[in-house]
Amino acid sequence: MPAFALPDTFVVAPLSASEFDPSAAAVTHEVIAAGPESVYHRLAGDQESEAVFLLARHVLNGFLDGAREPTDQACGAQEADGIAERTAQVHRQISGVLQPLREAEPRVRAAVLAQRAPLALIGGCWLDSVSQPATQPSIVVNHLVRHQFVWRGEGNPRRGLQQLRWRALEDLGVFLPDVMAPDFLRRAEARPLTAWHGAYHLSLARLPTTFLPEVVGTHYAVAALGVDELLLGTRPMLVEADLRAALADYLALAPNSVRNRLYAAVTRTLAMELEHVRLLADVAEWHAGLSLDAQVARIVARHAPFAGKQHRNVRVGGRPLTERFADPDFDLAAFIGDLRVSPQLKPRDGGCRFLRAIKFGGPMFGIFDEQEAATFQRWAEAIAAGNPPGVELTPNTAGDDTARALAEAIGALPPEVRLRAAGRSDDREFLHRLVNIENFPNTLALARARAEEGLARAEILFEHGGAGVLTDASWFDYSPSALNERVDRIYWDKLVNPYRPLTEIPDRDEVIFGQKTFALGSMIDGAWAHRIGATGRYTRRSDGMLYSIYADEMGRGDVTKNHITLIYQVLASMGIEVPHIRDTAFLDQDELPDHLYGFSLFQLSLALFPDSLYDEILGYNLGIEMFGLGTMRMHETQKLRRYGFDAAYEEAHLTIDNLSAGHARQSAEIIIAYLHDVAKLSGADAVSSHWERIWRGYASFAYFIEHELVAGLTRHEPADVII
Fold first, then answer.
1. Structural contact between residues 394 and 286, judged by C-beta atoms closer than 8 angstroms
2. In this structure, how many other beta carbons lie within 10 angstroms of the beta carbon of residue 480?
3. What pLDDT shows up at residue 560?
4. What is the pLDDT of residues 565-604, one digit of tens each?
5. Of 177-186, 243-252, 339-348, which gets the smallest average pLDDT?
6. CA–CA separation, 148 vs 419, rounded Å?
7. What is the CA radius of gyration of the chain?
8. Rounded distance, CA 202 to CA 215, Å?
9. What's the pLDDT tens digit per position in 250-281?
10. Is 562 within 8 Å of 136 (Cβ atoms)?
């Protein structure tokens, strides 16, 4: 059985068939049939369903099928340098195309920036879950974690890449709703090709383990090209040399087949960015070519569907306005021509009737925004000056041919997909499926059931949790001071004050066995939070704070400080060798006790639902971060040192989880910050229901720790314990 050894040289999960329930196929085809906007919105708004994993497979297959290219480039840094040179050449091309767009009149530039926004505002999404139990502590993944930490503002969402770009857009006069808002793409007037490009990036975010070569290649190409920085006039947050170093490390580790996939991804991404920049140029040209009449026609088309009966006495071209707008054969160009010569636009002292109507006090005030009102003003002035009509309405078709070809390719069922329902499995098989969830999305329903079951059974501790040895999950009414008081009491009364140094150290074999009981949980350290803060969801203080804890667990990209690295070092010091948990060989490992899988299965199941079980994850996080303190850790450290074993994992938790300012205190502050936002947005009455869910999450952790208490309450030994 191949044992895992540091350093972790993982470069990709096998591109094997992924299993989906047949029902997911029907949902996915419905989304694809609805068009690229539907695909984009589903991928952005859903990170929990089986269907979205299949949708991502479709999109990636459509973009990458046939794109792999053979190569005979040399190894290591020379390969990275060659890719960098290719990227620099495309950068020069792109810069030439973008320069006139940056200098365009404000109306045209705003249209260009809005068109790019569906890509700019999801920038870096491909790193959302690249760090996970299946990929840690990979050398390359930790490079990407370091980059992600920078892009996420080092735990401050306001300083993150997406928020910085959002503010830059608004500084340039482009105001759009949230990326996940139903009208985001419509407000951006996103072309179908723009939506497809965004769908590609979002699909990588859903399948980063299986498509890690494509993630690495896309990451380098997009970040090094810097299209959005060129357009917005902002400074890149990552330097090219650092991007190239990560690329070189990956290429040095990857076999030829994986290198070829990366080269193909770089080639595809460079072509896509150049393709999109050219689309932006076409969009700019189209907007610049719009006559005033055509600009007015666009405004009328936007508002006509909402014209009510209040306009029944207004006539244009001899017909009531409401009648014309309701006509299924409504001729927009003819209407603009008629409106041009109507009494409403006839010049009078103080302006025409229409302009008076849209000003404050007029019957149409508030219908049109400032830019639209200014366009009407210029149009009325042009009519008064005798400018001839120009109502030619040429549709914007930028990128449509390419988009249609992509739609056809994406609609086909990917070859790496197998439709079958998930059957029940033993704990080992279930763990394998959860760790490798990209290949087993049909397991998500079982994971949801496992998470809900664990949360429900933990509620027994609301009444009896005060008797816990290391936790106190008994219920109390929330207030910030009450939470801090409970945390402090657990810390002093249960974790610290009871501590006495061991006067007798168990024998060597017993110490090793004790570490084995912890090991499986330690191998997925941080997993409960690895999907927190994904694109479109990284806006609250609590998001940044919880992401920061996860980043700390992963060493903020320093693989030597990564907690997964540390636990494998501990095991190696005791001569314990097991395969990595992502490998099928782990199914046959015989070092770690079988009865301990339940704790890890619950944690991994909980982690897969970061949106719908967000509250519960916050409570669970509090429990597990406090568990890193006090008597248990100090005793384990004493035992390990006695026999010369590596104690780094225990020592790291005693320091980083400290209650003064470390993860334990931060975990309480996260809950307080989150519930403050709940009260602010939904009212104080909404806090209690969220608090109950949070405390249920804490109790679900305590349920696994307090096995003697739980056994007494339920009259049987729990199926799984961790101490």
1. yes
2. 14
3. 97
4. 999 999 999 999 999 999 999 999 999 988 889 999 999 9
5. 339-348
6. 34
7. 29
8. 11
9. 999 999 999 999 999 999 999 999 999 999 99
10. yes
d(CA 689, CA 696): 11
Strand 319-320 and strand 315-316: the pairing is antiparallel
For 639-687, how does the pLDDT look when each residue is reduced to its tens digit (9 = 90+)? 999 999 999 999 999 999 999 999 999 999 999 999 999 999 999 999 9
DSSP one-letter code for 413: P
Please give the distance of CA 47 from its chain centroid, rounded to a whole number.
8
Tokens at 239, concatenated? 């330097």
**What does DSSP say about strands 417-419 and 319-320: parallel, antiparallel, or unpaired?**
unpaired
At residue 465, what are phi and psi to the nearest 5 degrees?
-65, -20
Q: Are 687 and 478 in contact (CB under 8 A)?
A: yes
Integer Cα distance of 62 and 712 in angstroms? 56
The C-alpha atoms of residue 142 and residue 137 are separated, in whole angstroms, by 7
As given in the structure block, the two tokens for residue 642 are: 């006695």
Least trusted range by pLDDT, from 207-211, 218-222, 313-317, 396-400? 313-317
Q: Which two tokens stand for residue 314?
A: 């207004």
723 contact partners, CB below 8 Å, separation of at least 6: 517, 518, 632, 705, 707
The DSSP letter of residue 696 is: H
Distance CA 42, CA 51 (A): 9
Amino acid 723: pLDDT: 44
Residues with Cβ < 8 Å from 470, sequence gap 6 or more? Answer: 494, 495, 627, 630, 631, 632, 705, 706
**Alpha carbon distance 134, 163 (integer Å):** 29
The DSSP code for 311 is G
Residue 75 confidence (pLDDT):
42
Helix (H) or strand (E) holding 417: strand 417-419
Q: What is the distance between the alpha carbons of residues 303 and 310, in angstroms, rounded to a whole number?
A: 14
Task: Give CA–CA dist 684/379, Å, rounded.
Answer: 50
Per-residue model confidence (pLDDT) at position 390? 79
Dihedral angle, C-alpha 625, 631, 634, 639, nearest 10 °: -120
When pLDDT is cut at 50, 70 and 90, the band that residue 76 belongs to is very low
Question: What's the number of CA atoms in the CB half-sphere (13 Å) around residue 692?
Answer: 6
Instruction: Please enumerate in sequence order all residues whose Cβ is within 8 A of that of 445, keeping only pairs 6 or more positions apart, or say none.
Output: 21, 50, 422
**Per-residue pLDDT at 423:** 85
Q: Are 461 and 474 in contact (CB under 8 A)?
A: yes
